[in-house]
Here is the input.
Amino acid sequence: MTESPPAPSEPGQAYSGRVEPPAMGPWARALRLLAADRAAMLSLALLAMITALCLAAPLYATYVAHTDPFVSNVDGEITLRGKRVPVVQPSTEGLGLGSAPLGPTWEIGNFLLGADEQGRDIAARLLYGGRNSLLIAGASTVLCLVLAALTGLVAGFFGGFVDTVISRVLDVLWAFPIYLLAISLSIVLITKGFDIGPISISAGSLALPILIIGIVYVPYVARPIRGQVLSLKESEFVLAATALGVPAQRILLRDILPHVMTTLIVFVPLLMAINMLTESALSFLSIGVQPPDASWGTIIQDGTNLIYTRPMVAIAPGIAIVLTVLSLNLLGDGVRDALDPRSKLRLR
Amino acid sequence: MMRRAREWMMAVVALCLTATSLQPLAAEGVRGGTLRLLAASAAGSLDPKINYTLQYWSVYQYIYDGLVTFKQAAGEEGFTIVPDLAEAMPVPRDGGKTYVFQLRKGIQFADGRTVTVKDVVSSFQRIFKVSSPTAGSFYNGIVGADLCLKTPATCTLAGGVVGDEAAGTITFHLVAPDAEFFDKLAVPHGVVLPADTPARDMGSTPIVGTGAYMFAAYDPNKQLRIVRNPHFKEWSKDAQPDGYPDEIHYDFGLTGQAQITAIENGQADWTLDEPPPDRLAEIGTKYKDQVHINTLTAMWYVPMNTNLPPFNSLKARQAVNFAIDRNAAVKLFGGNALAQPACQVLPPGFPGYEPYCPYTKSPGSRWSAPDLARARQLVQESGTAGQKVTIIVADTTAAQALGTYLQSVLNSIGYDASVKTISGNIQFTYIQNTNNKVQISVSTWYQDYPAASDFLHVLFGCDSFHPGTDASINISGFCDKAIDAKMKHALATAATDASAANREWAAIDKLVTDQAPAAVLFTPKHLDFVSNRVKHFVFNPQYYWLHTASWIQ
Here is the structure.
């Protein structure tokens, strides 16, 4: 990965007159490559916009929509085009069966995307839900990468008994279908919470889905990291450092970690996309984010009961998930291309 | 030629006569065909001594018979108890403590064996041997029942249920007079099964009965198939009438949405489940001729654990009652056409019912609006503000919606509430078991039989509270000795004076409501959505739609 420094000019060598541009570092080149990737940049912009909107959820709810999207509003009313209308409207036709929440008004701050069956503002819930979805996806990605890097580095570098134990544990985790494992862990932890030693997480906490999703994907990242470390361990600069008596900890941090860092960075957007889908699936099954908190998955779940009359309740978070996951995947492709050493051939 | 013409004329007249004679037959019903019923899931064990669900109780009434049963009729008449396997309703003797039933002769089980006195006696012993859910509440008044409850395996009900094979009689001896004894015999746990039926829960294995139909096959994950009983001969139209369909297929597994679509398309005839809320308007307009709505004697309610904080405080329980907007709950259930707000235990029209509602803005006889200010004040006074509360709800659409609403209400009056959704298959028993430390839940109660005690004594009597078991139907764990004594007095009064007993129950209803062991939300109505093939829909208040009274065209 590191480039060989340019050969020093021989003394007395004639000056050619050509000025060599200063050597570009790998990170700078990667950034330049990424910036040149239009799809990745567009995705980044979209992702930034979605994140900014979601972070602004409290501002939207308080100052624009003037609503609390976590409180039932079944008997509430709003003013729509000069008329007072109920948020949940009882049917007046035929036998008068059922009631339907307000559909999209397309008025910003006034039930823009309509209401759910509890009479809550879908637009406000969508933004709050996005905050939780992004938070869980992001935090579980960081947790997963930290755990995977740690296990992959240690297993690959130390080998022997340590490698055997870590690899077998990863094999056991790998043996479970991901969703089955996530669902099983969720069902147990959502009921009882997590309470081991000094670590205590209550049953309804967002930390639970973060922990569960963060753990289930560790083998998928740790394995390639371990393989890379096994290869790096045999490289000359590591052998030289070992021969010079550099401590193992220093070799791991200074010589090996920087080389696996690009792999980890490539995993960030891709893993975040997968984690977001997993979170949505768990929340859809009522074993992820717990009410009254919302996530895009829980809002889709709320919408399934209204799919015939108010499809927007399910469609809006569905679109949000698609856009976010698509932009994360495209960004991930861009990052992978930018950090791939072979991609320098494309650099102009 | 003339002769030819006369023959033709005679043929035409004969045809007309035939057509005329067919007309009333069509109006009376058409035998044959397959009735296709749907439910999201099966209702567990098929054993009639074990199963305690409306889903299968409504099926048992054409599969099994007891000594007596509820009349197979619509309206109030459906609450009338008529003799079934017994020849007549016996006159109580010994001050209401002894009943002698004469068994009808010649009635056969679906396997061809004749019903004997031994079968009847054995069936009552089996209630205890298989630990039927109502063994301790419905049949504990039979002499010898206390011993059977202690040692079910060796239950004989000696001295309690005495058979005389020669005379064809079965004599019941009770510990005390019981005005509801016939009701208890009429429910499916009292049906008669062959004496050699194993003394264990038979689960998915069908047990033969004496009804017009019999179970042919049962796969709880797929289908329950019911066919005609080849040995059935109608002996009482009131008790066990012959049915119209040849077969009944009860299919499980479709989602609520798919069930409604199947009925609309004529691929199925009926669903047990409430239609999804967003299909109600559609079926109430486009298919209104196929919708049948009937008032029920039932309630949706919120039991609060009177033995756990914060609801061990009367003020906390009353606060919840004041805070709940019954109109919102009704809206979430499907609107005024499907439910009516309520805040007392006994449902309208029930024996002992007198309108009473202390938990509303203007206390009186009817609920008008929630009183949140009063509720918040009561929470503050109770010293329970800020406490964590977990609401346990089943995973049905309506229960989840009500759970989410209740969470919002509890948060708004000062609690830190969360909702836990668990499978509807286990929620009902989970909330009964005190080991699960359930603080508050959303539950339902549909009458077993038309008596005030079936709500007040069963749900809030000390005898119904069994800590540490799944069979503690007094979910609130409410046990007020003074009120319980009044209940027992009312039960005794009912044996001699039903009107006086109902007045006592009305007073008890108010006392229990004031103590607020639960918050009653609304009285539901029952919506049946049938296919356009189904003709002659008869709704019985005890067992709901009488499947086999309808025919298919």
Remarks:
- Residues 431 and 438 of chain B are 6 Å apart (CA to CA).
- The longest strand of chain B covers residues 518-529.
- The longest helix of chain B spans residues 2-28.
